[in-house]
Amino acid sequence: MESCCYPLSHHDNFKNQRQQKIADELKEHIISELKSTAEKNKLRKFEYIKAVAVEAKPFDDVEI
C-alpha cells in the first residue's frame, strides 16, 4: 500500500462523519424553518415541532 493512501475503513469513517455533519446541519435548518412557520401561524410553544430525524440514504437504495 502506498504511503499516501489510507485503509478503506478510514475513507468510510470520513464519509460517515461528513454525512453526519450534513444531517445535523440539515436538522437545524429544518427545525428553524418549522419554528418560523409556527411563530407566523401563532402556534403555542407546546405545539412547535422540536425534533426531526434525518437519515442519509442514497436515492438508488430507496424502494418505491
What does this structure look like?
The structure is a single chain. The chain has one helix spanning 8-40. The mean pLDDT is 83. The chain has 64 residues and is mostly helical. It is 52% helix and 0% strand.
Order of helices and strands: H
Provide the gyration radius in Å.
Answer: 18 Å
Tally of contiguous helical segments = 1
For the sheet with most strands, the description reads: none
E-strand count: 0
Observed structural traits:
64 residues; 1 helix
Compact summary:
The chain is mostly helical.
Secondary-structure blueprint:
Blueprint: H1 8-40
